[in-house]
Amino acid sequence: MRIGLLRERTPGERRTALTPDVIGRLQQRGYTVLVEHGAGQAAYYSDEDFRAAGAELVATATEVIHHADLLLRLHMPTEAEIEQLRTGQILVGHLQAWRYPERLEQLRARGVTVFALERMPRISRAQSMDILSSMASLAGYKAVIVAAERFGRLLPMMVTAAGTIPPALVLVIGAGVAGLQAIATARRLGARVEAYDIRPAVKEQVESLGARFLPITLDVHDVEQRGGYARELPEEVQRRQREALATYVARADIVITTAAVPERPAPRLITAEMVEAMRPGSVIVDVAAETGGNCELTRPGEWVEHHGVAIFGPLNLPATLPIHASQMLARNFEQFLALFVRDGSPRLHFEDEILRQTCLLHNGTLYPFAEKAVSTP
Ligand code: NAD
User: Fold this and answer.
1) Minimum CA distance residue for ligand 1 atom 24
2) pLDDT > 70: percent of the chain
3) How buried is 41 (Cβ within 10 angstroms: 0-12 exposed, 13-18 middle, 19+ buried)?
4) pLDDT tens string 182-208
5) Span from the CA of 231 to the centroid of ligand 1 (angstroms)
6) Catalytic pick among 127, 226, 279, 347
7) Which strand (E) or helix (H) includes residue 326?
């Protein structure tokens, strides 16, 4: 089977889905790897690195599409690219298909088999292929670095001849994969950290990182859905959450918000009024900006200032760490591609739960195994 790595063309994207270090292992599994010229360039992986690792360099996306059996691309291909795909070809990526219903229909009409890795089931066997977790860790780390850079004070306590400076107080809202990494990063920088999540199960993990889990009880049950994800809460509960969080937000120097519910808008946990109660010079980094933000003042992709508080809604933070992000993605994709090979020959083993759940399109059918899916957008 020939895998074709397409260069990402989405503005601001610097990651690539394969890196030279996994090429040799893919070849050992029986794959030939074709790489579009410049595919790794924005992540500092040169064509020469790919060639030295054993990949075949191909000049254009059109040629990659023509020669490959399986195409790898993080973002959804363009309409013009999809026009070149043929029946039976396989497309694998982090495609976020619900954003592109027309292109999904175009892929269906062309008979392409599509796997979207954001639909990865949350089972232990799938952890090594879980691109959402890999990227969430990087986003959590980078959110704190970005906040610290903007913050006009220090994070650690400092005892100097010019006086003692107390540590900053960082509040992390949403303690999933990104939130836990944000807590760990803020702790490493010497801040005091408080954290909150609707899932009480994370209290222990928060405390094991040296942070305080906020004692907010809302008397709601069934907050967790399949796979460890949170459920969307009724507006009345979200209102009580905001009331309970208000004093903690007001006293924080930096707030990192990561609260999310799969395929739903991010819960609104910080109002303008709550921001106005914060000290000027405080910083909010809203990692949930891509799905609407946890703060009502967040503008995706921008910094805004409100009553002296700087609020940032980053888009695609992992792309700001392209070297490691690509390395992690490449390992996730490598493990996923291994599922196609048994006894040396690659084919679609749909008896495998992971292939069934990640499959978006097969034989002209959308969500062909939907009864087994975690959720259907
Ligand atoms: P996510 O990005 O969907 O959500 C981030 C966090 O926001 C979650 O912890 C969620 O509980 C929290 N949240 C949602 N609504 C909230 C609200 N109203 N108020 C406060 N917090 C709210 O989730 P994620 O970080 O990708 O993963 C969540 C959990 O899933 C992980 O902590 C882990 O336990 C589990 N997980 C399992 C696997 C696996 O087994 N393969 C892989 C990854 C994650």
Assistant:
1) 176
2) 98
3) middle
4) 999 999 999 999 999 999 999 999 999
5) 10
6) 127
7) helix 322-338
Nearest residue to 61 (alpha-carbon basis) of 41, 35, 79 = 35
Locus of tokens 């949170």: 230
What's the start-to-end Cα distance of the chain, in Å?
A: 30
Out of 119, 120, 123, 133, give the residue to mutate to test ligand 1, the one with the largest number of ligand atoms within 8 Å of its CB: 133
Does 240 have pLDDT greater than 60?
Answer: yes
Choose the weakest-confidence range: 39-48, 74-83, 355-364, 366-375. 366-375
222's tokens: 């069934």
315-350 b/e (C-beta count within 10 Å ≥ 16 → b): ebbbbbbbebbbbbbbbbbbbbbbbbbeeeebeeee
pLDDT score of 372 more than 60: no
What DSSP letter does each residue of 88-142 carry, written as one string?
T-EEEE---GGG-HHHHHHHHHTT-EEEEGGG---SGGGGGG-HHHHHHHHHHHH
Give the CA count within 13 Å in the CB-facing half-sphere of 325: 25
Q: Is the CB of 194 under 6 A from ligand 1?
A: no
Tell me the HSE value of 77 on the side-chain side, using a 13 A CA sphere.
27
Mean pLDDT of the region 244-260:
98
Residue 32 clears pLDDT 60, i.e. is over it: yes
Q: How many residues does the chain have?
A: 377
234 vs 148: which has the higher pLDDT: 148
Q: Is the CB of 262 under 6 A from ligand 1?
A: yes
CA 365 to chain centre: 27
Torsion, Cα of 57, 62, 65, 66 (10° steps): -90
Please tell me the distance from the alpha carbon of residue 306 to that of residue 271, in angstroms, as a whole number.
11
Report whether pLDDT(100) > 90: yes
